[in-house]
């Protein structure tokens, strides 16, 4: 399968794509992994919201949900204008444990609903019961969309065998070294929105010669090239940063478009190489 530019409208920082259930999800957001709870994450979220971001992605495991919730309150932006994602941690999986963990996440975020809730990792023997809990929370109106993170094709197939509701999103490690074309194709065929974590390869994108050359061609940074490539592949992206300058700069990707040839040049960097853990082999 050749990945080519996806026919999804890319307009501006507050643009959205429609999920399978009709919910509109901003295709660009701020990730807050490794942002310390308190001043660091509060500032990052407030800077992002002030810059026009409307999508914030956190997780129980990031240990900064309280700061994210505080920043949203202090921003002055109505809660309903912000798309807020969190994720269920592995030790909280299972039906009853998930329901309990979700309520604690709501409490820490100081909100009465989530826009998206994800199972963080496919914990074997537990994720099906966990998914039933997410389906209940979704039906109860406490979550606008439900999905998974780090689920490969065989995990998705296994989950969907017994699920009443298909995952609406799969958040995965995605960058020029790990494209996973077949998984993208499977998600697209099943109405599952692909979302990227670690799109900048934990900074390695800045050192890649191909990306640097493309940056020079478009008068952009290698980060801009990768983030634009994500969107033109139809992949929602949430670069993380705690720097005001980087948060504002990362969003400067709506005034240019990569050619089809340049998209394929980046696709060709794929070497099936992970920076993060393998979803088939993790022990946390």
UniProtKB/TrEMBL annotation:
It comes from the Bacteria. This is Aldo/keto reductase. The active site is at residue 62. Substrate binds at residue 120. The keyword Cell cycle does not apply. PANTHER family: 2,5-DIKETO-D-GLUCONIC ACID REDUCTASE, NADP-DEPENDENT OXIDOREDUCTASE DOMAIN-CONTAINING PROTEIN. Belongs to the aldo/keto reductase family. Pfam families: Aldo_ket_red (PF00248). Keywords: NADP, Oxidoreductase. The keyword tRNA-binding does not apply. The record marks 87 as: Lowers pKa of active site Tyr. It comes from Leeuwenhoekiella palythoae. One of its GO terms (molecular function) is oxidoreductase activity, acting on the CH-OH group of donors, NAD or NADP as acceptor. CDD domains: AKR_AKR5G1-3 (cd19157). Residues 29-270 form the NADP-dependent oxidoreductase domain. InterPro entries: AKR (IPR020471), AKR5G (IPR044500), Aldo/ket_reductase_CS (IPR018170), NAD(P)_OxRdtase_dom_sf (IPR036812), NADP_OxRdtase_dom (IPR023210).
């Amino acid at each position: 399968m050749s990945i080519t530019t996806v026919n999804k409208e890319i307009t501006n920082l507050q643009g959205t794509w429609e999920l399978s259930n009709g919910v509109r999800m901003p295709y660009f957001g701020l990730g807050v992994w490794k942002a310390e709870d308190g001043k660091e994450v509060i500032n990052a979220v407030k800077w992002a919201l002030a810059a026009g971001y409307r999508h914030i992605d956190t997780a129980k495991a990031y240990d900064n949900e309280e700061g994210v919730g505080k920043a949203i309150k202090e921003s002055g932006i109505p809660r309903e204008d912000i798309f807020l994602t969190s994720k269920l941690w592995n030790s909280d999986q299972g039906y009853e444990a998930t329901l309990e963990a979700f309520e604690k996440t709501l409490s820490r975020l100081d909100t009465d609903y989530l826009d998206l809730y994800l199972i963080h990792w496919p914990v074997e023997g537990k994720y099906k019961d966990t998914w039933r809990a997410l389906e209940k929370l979704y039906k109860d109106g406490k979550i606008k969309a439900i999905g998974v993170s780090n689920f490969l094709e065989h995990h998705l197939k296994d989950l969907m065998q017994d699920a009443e509701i298909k995952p609406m999103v799969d958040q995965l490690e995605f960058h020029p070294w790990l494209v996973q074309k077949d998984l993208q194709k499977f998600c697209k065929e099943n109405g599952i929105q692909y979302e990227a974590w670690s799109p900048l390869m934990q900074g390695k994108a800045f050192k890649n010669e191909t990306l640097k050359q493309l940056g020079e061609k478009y008068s952009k940074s290698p980060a801009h090239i990768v983030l634009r490539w994500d969107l033109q592949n139809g992949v929602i992206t949430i670069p993380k940063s705690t720097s005001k300058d980087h948060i504002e700069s990362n969003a400067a990707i709506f005034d240019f478009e990569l050619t089809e040839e340049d998209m394929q040049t980046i696709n060709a960097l794929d070497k099936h190489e992970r920076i993060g853990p393998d979803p088939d082999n993790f022990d946390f």
